[in-house]
């Protein structure tokens, strides 16, 4: 055989083999445009022979959490935790049970909780369940809840509800030298409890909403205490600013599911000296998951984000079409 | 030879060999108590056969920067940058040259700059040199300065003045699975420019003083801009709170040189479920470096810290006695 033909055949075989390996790394994805765009991006930035190559230290990917890595319906999981905590606290402290905010939480009376422009009731509930205790105690409470609490519609533990296709994306990026950060509107301390076991993301890489902490010496021992003051919601432009402050570099890949993720996607893709990639998860599957662009009052809205996706060429995942599997095991509502 | 004796001899030989390897990793350290305490700690937490073993993911070491990883006399390097920037700005913008604060900086008139309880002059100088510009532009300016600027007394570029013994400590910890974070009173954005080249510490792991940033769209491009509002000084208890917020876990080793580092050392060592270690660098070498516990107005004070070191059994490095070398090459004042 002519050497050139032999080489071409070998190269082609290698390319097919490489592509099969890549496909096998994302088994929960159908072979759609979204998957192909993602694989092409990763190849582009990791192939040292291409001018689009990005050094490993600059490969940062950021992920929203609620609605991007796991469901956010019928309410974000942290809100479910908050409701369960209200009940637990009321059982333990009868004087608290009489508090109208705790009562509203127990009765799932969201109208009362979210009344008024500033949602005073909800903020008070957050203070009662997320502040006034040590950071260690809060972690213990989240851990205890996390062990057993179940999703109200899937009737399965929340901890089983991470999207399998997104876990595959994280693993694929990580195996290609990417740093992975979670940049979510959820509470930083809440997410740090399970980001390790669920996604292999260590606490340093979890950016979320937060409030003040104080440092107190109790019996000569330093104790970090959670406060309700200084609340900083990590959403919209706040996500971009927090990425800058916390991580100190620009991501080259961003994944989200709502308008609140648009700013960090713009920061990732517009005027970035490196090749970049952004992907929206679009909730289009009413049977296996949920179908919505907005489900007041709790879900993220996806309206201007879809427009921006068209404008900037971001990928949009059609969950129903693009994912052959939603969770790691068969879980149905 | 009896098998038991043979085994003992082999073990002893191995121990001596291991200790020689360890010593070789810290060649700029004399064989003093401080070095021995440090090596013993690392062995204790990395030997899986011991009950004191700490899993790799929980091995976090935090380092102050000014006075701990490089000198802080006659003034912190960032203050030298600020003075040089004032001169550069005055040359470029004659209208700025008339500003009394810029004039004070050019004339090294620290009395004017630091007058008043709130140091208004200095704050204004910081705003002029550190804010109102994009984060990218600030980075460019620091980088340009960093390439050539020289220390006023060593007459050597600042970039050559990292303490060689501390670089060895960082390398030794890193080779033993430790994560390394810099937790300094210096500006976060300033330090992130050189923490990589000097210490191999990526920007995510550099915690420092910071102020607000804004996100602005300029010609459709997202630009992060540095502001002078919202200044947060990373010192004393602020260091501990920032470690909690940014890193989400407790260090098991802390290195500092002033009372401002005491809080993070307490957080590291008091009531930590893991074995822990803290080390003060004591400036005792007037010839090769500086000798001081306090050099107003710029250096850190080391007074209550030395008391705390005694109380808690922290190591104290006598720079003159314990380091056989201060910098990587011979540099003298």
Give a concise summary.
With 333 residues, chain A is an alpha/beta fold. Chain A contains 14 helices and 9 strands. In chain A, a hairpin with a 2-residue loop joins strand 4 (213-218) and strand 5.
Task: Describe what you observe in this structure.
Chain A contains 14 helices and nine strands. Chain A is of the alpha/beta class and 333 residues long. Chain A folds into two domains: 26-74 and 156-322, HAD superfamily/HAD-like (Rossmann fold, 3-Layer(aba) Sandwich), CATH 3.40.50; 77-148, no CATH class. In chain A, the strands form two sheets. In chain A, strands 1, 2, 3, 6, 7, 8 and 9 form a seven-stranded mixed sheet that branches. In chain A, α3 (77-92) crosses α7. The longest helix of chain A is centred in the N-terminal third of the chain and has 22 residues, at 3-24. Chain A is globular, with a radius of gyration of 22 Å. Chain A starts with a helix and ends in an 11-residue tail after the last helix. Chain A binds chain B through residues 57, 135, 179, 188-189, 192, 202-206, 210, 213-215, 220-222, 224, 237, 240-241, 244-249, 263, 266-267, 270-271, and chain B through 57, 135, 179, 188-189, 192, 196, 202-206, 210, 213-215, 220-222, 224, 237, 240-241, 244-249, 263, 266-267, 270-271.
